[in-house]
């Protein structure tokens, strides 16, 4: 049942709205955006080595299914209990509907718009506060960020502190460039880059050009979440795009 999966993933006293970071008065758009952020956080590709990542990722799908359905949401709101599900969820069509194909052109266009923008700066400051000053947390939670952005992000944060926009938080000194944490992040990033390069080389040996392009597109889609939907939201002016990681460089 849906409730059993959600409780196994997040505990017996879990509150569905809190999992998505929204309030009970959230609109359907708020719920969708909250789901994107939570699903990105627990995407198995971003949490390799964490055995519970897949379970939490799938459980979040159930949370979204309940809160995005008016009848199921009303049942949950009135009883505080999870609506029962009598059938096993087929996740492939569900995620195919949510996670639309990513195009390189749109990815490039959005990257040029976002990186270095005031919106990115606000996202950096928001992640700085959420992560208690940890630069690693900022890199993990700001769209398109990699360890290469650490120095630039630290400068943005320190300028925000000087301007009184945010307070000096303890995690900044511990994770600043040149710290032991920063060196650990750099070693991890280097390992991941080598692993990604090795995977791509293996793919080139076993697939023709068409299969390789399709595989890379699928990999980008899995890592970045519903990027196309975010772009469409941005271009329509309806909402703010969510945070995500930059695809690993080839």
UniProtKB/TrEMBL annotation:
Domain of life where this protein originates = Eukaryota
Quote the Pfam families the UniProt record gives. Answer: DnaJ (PF00226), HTH_DNAJC9 (PF23302)
Concerning SUPFAM superfamilies, the annotation shows:
Chaperone J-domain
Residue span of region Disordered: 183-211
**For this protein, what is any one GO molecular function term?**
heat shock protein binding
Which Gene3D superfamilies does this entry report, sorted A to Z?
A: DnaJ domain
Which protein are we looking at? J domain-containing protein
Provide the J domain boundaries. Answer: 15-80
Spell out the CDD domains in the cross-references.
Answer: DnaJ
Write out the GO cellular component annotations. cytoplasm; nucleus
